[in-house]
């Protein structure tokens, strides 16, 4: 969240705490208003009304970093990437391993807290319904603030929908005297609700704010949310005549296939790119080093590619926040275990010359180092492999198993190296990390994907894909190349580029679901691979390509189950297979 908002929360934290006291309840959809702080008090002046809006941001902005024992950000004590083919956590107790081994259930899913989304949604409705009574905020500004709240609401519904499918739509602040046991709406109704809110918000939101309010929701963010929601809606998981499991077809998707949904998604994503071109947003290209450009796009606050980011994540805490303990590699700035990057994922990257890297079952350390150094710039930035440098303070490290069976400093890990993306800004002095909610690169890839589905091999789809490849410093493609000269081949290259460019940003976990490929070998099912280094008696190292885990997938996992505690109340239908 932006710095101005964070300062406001600090100054007015007491008010926010009071507001939260009536935002929580055993019933996830709402509760009666508390007498401790009245609505009239909260919306009696600008300062207090703004503090509530900042708290609404705080309760609605996605955060993929694990930061606390009791909060479901990312997986419990790990990131979502560790529950996909992107990565793994070597230790067994973080909840990513529950998903990898298939032991999660209707009563125990530590990735998400169903009710927390509705607390955020409730905050948006409280603000929308009451901001008009504030006497010292101009009418046009009130409308803009309402629009911000509407987009925040849509963000929370999108987070729910990509996990659960259709959910209950709340259209007002609920109270105990009304009907709070709302059934699930249809998937189509949920999509149109978010899209309608985004359209309405985009009509009044500004294109930008003064620098002190950097990070607030703009027209571009409203367009971005609409575009992403429509891409998901057009995808095979939801847009199909043959659902992944029978039953509840209008809750898990549309219940039919319509190619116009891809067209609609293409148009919405093109609108984001058009808005960006008119308002100074663009891919980061300032450096001659593609890895430096990629790093800036991911890490640097206010860069021209960043549309919306959660700035609330701090660096160090004994027990909270615990970002560095959960995410940093072993022995680096207090890291407990780190996140290994699987060979399954590493094989998605190209070499700098645009070729596939090939790993034998065993080879010399010199071969290992040469092949790693030949990988493209985004890999060099994103993966901390043996023999590479973390930063000037930590330096170079090697991960290998000694002849006596013990591990070198920083090992063991599962994969080819540790996840390094996001974390270059940290040091023993601390750090501030933001979670990217929307960055422009996604929408080039969204547009390429949707356009290829509605207009196979469309030159504009290839052009959008090449914008990302060119910025990454790897060769561009063309339709004359036999590797990309059909719709299906281009589709696979778009998926591959998406896996690379958006790695570890909580896209892959959901992408493989919406594409309905999660059950394929080596994705969410079957063998996960790594490269392990072993010391030999002569002191040399060799690498070996080895499996570290066989993962479990069932098709019912395409959508999460509604928590059993809510099903037991008798008003929500469960997703198929659970």
TrEMBL record:
InterPro entries xrefs = SusD-like_N (IPR033985), SusD_RagB_dom (IPR012944), TPR-like_helical_dom_sf (IPR011990)
Parts forming coiled coils: none
Subcellular location per UniProt equals: Cell outer membrane
A Pfam family recorded for this sequence? SusD_RagB
The RagB/SusD domain sits at 324-578
Instruction: Quote the PROSITE patterns the UniProt record gives.
Output: PROKAR_LIPOPROTEIN
The residue ranges of the SusD-like N-terminal domain are 99-231
As given in the record, the signal peptide range reads: 1-26
- Keywords for the protein's UniProt record, in alphabetical order: Cell outer membrane, Membrane, Signal
Query: Record's family?
Result: Belongs to the SusD family.
**Record-given protein name:** RagB/SusD family nutrient uptake outer membrane protein
High-level lineage = Bacteria, Pseudomonadati, Bacteroidota, Cytophagia, Cytophagales
